[in-house]
Amino acid sequence: MRMSHVYQPIMIKHLLENNGRAKAEEIAVDLVQNDLSQVEYYTERVNSMVGKVLRKNQIVVKEKNEFELIGYRDLKEKDKDELIELCQRKIEEYKQKRGMLIWDHRRKNRSPIDGSIRYQVLNRANNVCELCGIPSDVRALEVGHIVPKNWKGIDDLVNYQALCYKCNANKRDTDDTDFRNRVALFDVRASYGECNFCDTSLDDILFQNNLALVNKVNDSYYIFPKRHVSDYLELKSAEVNAIHDLMKSVKKILVAQTNGTSGFDIVIDQFDGSLKEHTFIKMTPVHYTTR
Ligand SMILES: [Zn+2]
Ligand SMILES: [Zn+2]
Questions:
Q1: How far is the CA of 111 from the centre of ligand 1 (A)?
Q2: What is d(CA 125, CA 118) in angstroms, rounded to the nearest whole number?
Q3: pLDDT at position 269 over 50
Q4: In the chain, what are the domain boundaries?
Q5: Lowest mean pLDDT among 44-53, 173-182, 269-278
Q6: 105 vs 23: CA distance, rounded Å
Q7: Ligand 2 centre distance from Cα of residue 142 (Å)
Q8: 210: which residues sit within 8 A by CB, 6+ positions away?
Q9: CA–CA gap between residue 154 and residue 147 (Å, rounded)
Q10: From the CA of 236, how far away is ligand 1's center (Å)?
Q11: Which ligand ends up closest to the CA of 229?
């Protein structure tokens, strides 16, 4: 059963328990509390972040799955109330000062992603993590830039991906080192030297997006990454997305031209006649004869 299947009974139950009326925000809190993928997400945060820090500072100890406040048994009721009050004050202060920004750690690059972009990216990813394939109702998915903004990543669909929080956390760990090299990803079609594709200015581009372009020779459509890459499997996910988008456009053209009666061959190849080879995808219509 998908998480979304349980939304309706949660909302109806919430309304029944609150005299038939409730604010959207209150219902949302109920949804979050019942969303196991969110609970799992924050369990991980407790263990690896806040719990770890509090252990290090000798405020809590951990035994098996439980955290225990050091010295709790020696606290008088009055002390407990005072401490709770103190914590509550800190929380309120923080909320007021930062508003919703408190939850920023869940967004990458600290720039909020437009809801419709989020929707499109999750939709394209079929609501599964684009790295490990885990579905969104098992583990919360985060939408973020593939190449981060601070490394010149662009705000374009091709540069977004949906990752589960675990894959995303692993990715973030490598951000600083990894992306220094990846900035080159967007320095597209620089003259590369000895690559016929990169070194020639193309005037027969049929259409293109940020990272890839299409041209046509005879019956075949050629889709090139703009960056010089000789091995297709060395392309970055943003480039694969960009190429995939163009393949869809080519498919539309082919289907329209042939009233949907033909299929096509897709070949991964390298640019002919170059000293340095440049990878591309070739789509050629196959005309079936109907019997
Ligand atoms: Zn994942
Ligand atoms: Zn090239």
A1: 21
A2: 11
A3: yes
A4: 76-106, 110-186, 196-286
A5: 173-182
A6: 26
A7: 33
A8: 154, 156, 158, 159, 186, 188, 226, 242
A9: 8
A10: 17
A11: 2
For residue 197, report the distance from its CA to the centre of ligand 2, in Å: 5
The pLDDT value recorded for residue 177 is 42
> 200 CA to middle of ligand 2, Å?
9
Residues near ion ligand 1 (CB < 5 Å) are 129, 131-132, 164, 167
Residue 222 pairs in a beta bridge with 215, 282
β strands within 104-187, DSSP E: 141-145, 160-164
**Residue 26 CA to ligand 1 centre (angstroms):** 30
Residue 249's pLDDT is 92
Looking at the structure, give the CATH architecture of the domain made up of residues 110-186.
Answer: Orthogonal Bundle (1.10)
Half-sphere exposure of residue 168, counting CA atoms within 13 Å on the CB side? 23
What token pair was written down for 155?
A: 């705000």
Query: Ligand 2 centroid to 194 CA: how many Å?
Result: 8
- The tokens for 47 are 């263990």
Query: In the predicted model, is pLDDT for residue 127 greater than 80?
Result: yes
CA nearest neighbour of 206 among 245, 239, 246, 244? 246
What's this model's pTM, rounded to 2 decimal places? 0.51
Which position has the higher pLDDT, 42 or 107?
42
Superfamily name and number for 196-286: HIT-like (3.30.428.10)
Q: Is 278 exposed, middle or buried (0-12, 13-18, 19+ CB in 10 A)?
A: buried
Which H or E run includes 220?
A: strand 220-225
Number of CB atoms found within 10 A of residue 197's CB = 23
What six digits make up the tokens of 168? 């995303």
